[in-house]
Amino acid sequence: YARMEYVDAAGEYLKVSGKNDPYVYRQLAESYYNVFNSKEAVKWYAKATQSNQDAEIYYHYAQMLKAEGNYEEANAQMQKFASLKPNDERAIAFKQDPNYLPKLRNQTKMFDEKKLDINDEKYSSFGAVLTDDNNFYFTSARNTARKTYGGNEQPYLDMYMATYNADGSFSEPTPISEINTKW
């Protein structure tokens, strides 16, 4: 866990999770939080918060509950967070508008989301930018020849470029060798 190898850490903590230890539950929850496995994080935060925790744990728990669509329980955890850290900006914002999520859903949609044929279902890809000259840049963990990052067991990230074609398709992405390093 201290080396940010959260997938491995979760595996190790799972081995001792039957000992009814709030510390182990917390570490499991935080490990899953850090790799955004919200379902498992919620499960272990629920156990961890059966004993008193610091404010950040309640905040993280609330975020994972929101990711799972459990807004009512998320608000309950945010209340606990806000009571422990009343001057925190996140607590103040929550107290001013605890039910902001339904309002967000009712806003007019500004962008369309589309899965691209260059996306890889298994590996992270994000941070896309389309330039005026139709170059499409993005970050991806698609290079399976690279070492894996212990935090999420995916290859280290590289930058890629593809060309956006007039028909809406993309050329095959190529790594940007001037930026990417072997590490």
UniProtKB/TrEMBL annotation:
Protein name from the UniProt record: Cell envelope biogenesis protein OmpA
Keyword set includes tRNA processing: no
Organism: Flavobacterium beibuense F44-8
Alphabetized PROSITE patterns for the sequence: TPR (PS50005)
TPR repeat start and end residues: 55-88
Lineage: Bacteria, Pseudomonadati, Bacteroidota, Flavobacteriia, Flavobacteriales
The entry's keywords: TPR repeat
